[in-house]
Amino acid sequence: MSQALEFTLQARCGETLARTGVLHLKHGTVHTPVFMPVGTHGSVKTMAPRELEELGAEIILGNTYHLYLRPGHTLIDSLGGLNRFMSWDRPILTDSGGFQVFSLGDLCTVHEDGVRFASHIDGSRHDFTPALSMEIQMALGSDIAMIFDECLEYPATREVTRRSMERSITWAERSKAAHGKADQALFGIVQGGFEADLRARSAAAMRHIGFDGYAIGGLSVGEGKDLMYRVLDDTVPHLPEDAPRYLMGVGLPIDLVEAVARGIDMFDCVMPTRHARTGYLFTGWGRINIKNARFRDDADPIDPACACYTCQNFSRAYLRHLFISGEILGHHLNTIHNLHHYLSLMAAIRRAIGEGRFGAFHREAAHQYHEETCHA
Amino acid sequence: MSQALEFTLQARCGETLARTGVLHLKHGTVHTPVFMPVGTHGSVKTMAPRELEELGAEIILGNTYHLYLRPGHTLIDSLGGLNRFMSWDRPILTDSGGFQVFSLGDLCTVHEDGVRFASHIDGSRHDFTPALSMEIQMALGSDIAMIFDECLEYPATREVTRRSMERSITWAERSKAAHGKADQALFGIVQGGFEADLRARSAAAMRHIGFDGYAIGGLSVGEGKDLMYRVLDDTVPHLPEDAPRYLMGVGLPIDLVEAVARGIDMFDCVMPTRHARTGYLFTGWGRINIKNARFRDDADPIDPACACYTCQNFSRAYLRHLFISGEILGHHLNTIHNLHHYLSLMAAIRRAIGEGRFGAFHREAAHQYHEETCHA
Fold first, then answer.
1. Fewer C-beta within 10 Å: chain A N or C terminus?
2. Which helix (H) or strand (E) segment is A93 a member of?
3. Among partner residues A41, A42, A328, which is closest to B46 by beta-carbon distance?
4. Which among B308, B328, B337 is the top mutation candidate for probing chain A, defined by the most A β-carbons within 10 Å of its own β-carbon?
5. Residues B81 and B160 occupy one common structural domain
6. Residue A148 domain boundaries
7. Above 0.95 for ipTM, yes or no?
8. Do both B58 and B202 map to the same domain?
9. Rounded mean pLDDT of A249-270?
10. Shared domain check, A306 and A223
């Protein structure tokens, strides 16, 4: 453990690998298992910082790729760092930019030292390397930085997966060597696709290099739930018990419950915020599409059991009207609801673990999800 | 006075026609002079009701034309009225739809009984009449309804202006006859273009019909400030002293001060909200354009003297970044600032009148505006 991060395990579930913990970071304390709302361009879309705090968000994610391109990390640095820039005084985790370089950059070419790509904004040419990713993340001043790794397209052959995983280990070493910020934690990322032995090899290499926490990358790429859960089963036992484990880019509420049961502590996903802006809203019985004509005169809230500001004040009919009229307020109220759904799920998970009933909670969630999908 | 509205004058300025008052309406109390934020589609764009309350908005405006077309007044009625639909429990004034019929409706033709037009949304054909406008506004359940009048294009000849003004008197009579909601106030609208005698004739006719309040329409159509102020000078003396006076669709901050000095009590304008979404922000020394490159690394708030949430937390550099990145949060934070600027100006005006120093306040505002425009 560095001085940038202190992780204390608290309760454990007797039936699963679920655990609660407290993560102390530069900007404050985070209770795990935790969901991190995604703030791509220096804002969690439509949400003012005070609203995120009201929802109980303890840590958010910032995107290195986007902030590097616009407004630029040196500008943010000169204005006092990302926290001050966006007026968020709780912890931030920044990704390495790797995923966006591969998925958003045009004409992207991978070489031994990094990735060349053209900006999706103006076509300008850039060369991302582990050292540059560290330089950007240190300038942003996040609480947790991520190593720069290679992101593979799915599906990939075993041999391609193996070579990429080995390259990510090299880049992890270079990331750690280039990182020099005492108050910023650094997480490794385990790759290896859907091959148990490659995951084990990557995890061992990451532990050998030594990080403040360990992420699992390369999942939620279209592989299906069973395969994702199997990779978690295969990988988590190779990660240290006393460090936080972060499953990147996942997922649906059921995925969070299943991953917590497999020992994961941290999550991020654009799903609640992105779905909000396309009218997909989470409820206790699955997702609804607020655009649907059957909500035209529906006086009920999105979810009558929900305690969020949106559900306490607005009907489905009103939210449908806002959506169809293209009113920004609709995106905002939907985002409040979806983030509340995710953050209150995580709070319920933490309570269940703390009170020794997560096994039952997990079984019930799996059963309910099964019912949902059978009746969808 | 009907049971729907009670207006009590409080303080008067010794040097101008400015006055403060208290307006009691179905949904609560409004302190005048007052600015009403505009909520076109059943939301003041980007603003949740609790945020409007935080800014001190005591009454907002709803657009009859837009709500009639989408989602429809009968739907809103069946859901308990516009207040409940949008979860706003303070007063609402609805316009008559007239202005939008003329400015937004396609293929608009005026006939003796009303206006035929095609919806700007789907091209469907509609026929607005005084009776229909009353029916819609009663269904919406606003605190204050407006008569349906004819809106002229600017410029118009004296004869066209006169005929239109006479037709608006006929429609005012029909509006009053069709209006039958005891807890909803009804305001007349004085027309007559830029002809003092036509304004006097219209005002006398409106008084003769008898309304809870009197609006001045047909201004801020491109005529220039001096002409607008002259029409106010010509018109206000013909309005009853003890009823609220409402200047429709005006204007810039300086216009509000000048109109208050001429005896106006109520205002609405899309300028603060619309400007916010195009990056124009009001300050104590005029408007700034947040898109401007000189704000790229500017750590100051929009207006260092401003107490709004946006200015207390965010830099010009951040707001410029949000705007350029197309982030919805930028529109929202800009809207908070601009509405705060307008609403706190009105509060300052009320204090100045109440403390017997509005004469000086008015002279200083006029001087400052003169300086701004000379140095712009």
1. C
2. strand A92-94
3. A328
4. B328
5. yes
6. 6-269
7. yes
8. yes
9. 97
10. no
